[in-house]
Amino acid sequence: MGRVQVLDKHTAELIAAGEVVERPASVIKELVENSIDAGADAITVEIKNGGVSMIRITDNGEGIHRDDVPVAFLRHATSKISTGSDLEAIYTLGFRGEALASICAVSRVEVMTRTAESDIGTRYVIEGGDEVLIDDCGCAKGTVITVRDLFYNTPARMKFLKKDVSEANAAASVVDKIALSHPEVSVRFIRDGKQTLMTPGDGDLKSAIYAVFGKEFTEGLMPVDYEYNGIKVSGYVSRPICARANRSMQTFFINGRCCRNSAMQAALEEAYRGAIMVGKHPACVLNVEMNCAAVDVNVHPAKLEVRFTNERPVTSGIYYAVKSALAENDRRPELKIAETKPQPKVQQPFAPVLQTETVQMKIEETPAVPTVPKTPRPIEDTPISAAPVKVSDSSDDDVHERYASLLRETPPPEVKKPRRADYSFIDIETDEPEKPVVHEHEPIPVQQEPETCVQEPEVRTNDFELGNWKIVGEAFGTYLILESGDDLIIIDKHAAHERLIYEQLKAQQTGENVQYLLEPQTVVLDKKHYDAVLDNLDLLMKAGFETEDFGSGTVIVRTVPTALAGSDAAEAVQEIAGRLGGMNETFIEKLDNVLHTVACRSAIKAHDRTSYEELARLAVRLDADPSVRYCPHGRPISIKLTRKELEKSFGRI
Which of 148, 223, 384, 461 is at 20 to 30 A from 291, Cα to Cα? Predict the structure, then answer.
């Protein structure tokens, strides 16, 4: 007897449903795309318990004819295509005819729909793929689909769902992308009875971006509108100064369909090469319009991946579109120098006046800084050994020279440097003398002439002893060179400092060594990384980041580790969120990764200007902890070169 058998209808539908319906967000994507294909310009998405208990999609589209309602829930039943040749040019978002059949196979579905030609609507109920009811009902033009008890008949699939908040954030991410891909459609999202998104549907993409990502993100965007070889690229890209720590805010659409394609990302970042720092990534919302026959969207059941018959025109179009936007919109303020008119000469008896023409620096779009008026200073304020000079007996040039020489005879006030505090972390900033404060109606001190300035040479000694070590110097602004007996030790200052900070962060307790921000910062994240942050609030608190949920993809940061004081807290949280978003690790492993990020961002960087005393302090800390041999990423901190190896290299032995 043969062993091969045909599966029954129910089992086959459950298997097929797994390709399309992975989680509640998958259901929302398929149903909202059907609403857009039906011509709706107002769509409401409502979920409860992350979409597991209930999903309701309401639209004002053309509706479904009564005779088509039962057929629409059969597998491979669709109105979008009719022959195989239609797959070569797909203009609609849906076309496979699998979504409704897959959804009703694993849930309880109720449909209420009415077309414009019909006076009475249709109510259709189907559970687990089996029809339960079809009847008349009263409803507005359009369609209302309610999906309840998702995966009620497949408990194995149910247990792999995440927490309700995670599933809700995934659903919100899908709704955000649909709202951005079709700004002409007003999209409303209701989450557990609370409205969290409402786009105007006015056709303006920037309005949709503002509704989805907020004011701060929108203000940092530049418009893109470019056409190249039949490829039209439109949308918005971020200014270089608003670059982010990861690629989470890069959104691409092909003919209004959200998709993933690594070549498009590479073209975007190549256009920014040289405009942003290494390790930073631009954000974008770009729509590429092209011939549907040149793109294949029938690659994945979820229709998230696309392939091009010729990839080069698409990548070139994106590259030149972004380059053009950068050239037109990312302009630095122009520096202009304007000479002001000389002030009228003011003469007083026995008081020669120093008259000079001032040159004022002005930058466009920058408010002018108020200048301090210059008041003539009488000579009698300055100790003079010679007799007074009469103005009438000398020319203006002679008076100018005499007055300047008298000022040169007066020694300048001694400027004291502020005492440095004993910081636990190395301070890479250099001390600068305090600038004298000039008050109104007080004379401005004149600097001494270069030939009269006597500066003592900076005293630097190489005999700074550190136990058995002696500092020799610094190479390439990156490596500290020490001499220890017959050994030459070369230390990577960034790796060493990073490890020392990492060990200090691990040793501290929750709430210790944190810096409260004067003004809490808001951080806008995509829904995936937003969910990762909310799932790890305790972990971030342990690392020194007091973070709270602000709703709609935004979190508030109130404290940062002391090591990061003075740096960009929002950027640090963005980078950490990107790391947490791709982790499936234990609490300790995640905490270590967060501490790695904090230590790396706060440590001395290669090529930073570092004073001799700071290098010495770093060497002292390394000498006190000989167990520190590797940075948190596993790279060696130092290498040793013996005297014998060195002399052998020079042929001395």
Answer: 223
